[in-house]
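RECORD TYPE: inverse folding
INPUT: structure tokens
STRUCTURE:
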């Protein structure tokens, strides 16, 4: 949130919640994660349901960074009942999710 200059205290309430990070912002997020892991962080946490504009690549990049240090990633997800529309996708691939980040397949 800090990198995207979001005014929220705990959850994003501005741009960070509704737009993709720029390449420069992704690089800064990566740098901060790597710094934290180098300083001894045991894991990386992220709440992808709160940033629905985050791309699959951005999310996978966090997993890649954590894996380099053998750190786990703790992802905060809401129950599917809150995220699923209950409708099947037009392609017949199952439920349609309100957050595109959750469909990593």
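DESIGNED SEQUENCE:
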């Amino acid at each position: 949130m800090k990198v995207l200059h979001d005014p929220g205290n705990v959850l994003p309430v501005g741009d960070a919640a509704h737009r993709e990070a720029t390449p420069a912002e992704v690089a800064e997020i990566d740098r901060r994660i790597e710094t934290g892991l180098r300083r001894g962080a045991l894991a990386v946490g992220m709440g992808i349901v709160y940033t629905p504009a985050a791309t699959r690549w951005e999310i996978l990049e966090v997993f890649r960074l954590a894996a380099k240090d053998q750190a786990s990633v703790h992802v905060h997800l809401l129950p599917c009942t809150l995220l699923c529309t209950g409708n099947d996708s037009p392609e017949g691939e199952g439920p349609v999710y309100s957050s595109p980040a959750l469909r990593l397949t």
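NOTES: The helical segments are 23-38, 56-68, 80-83.
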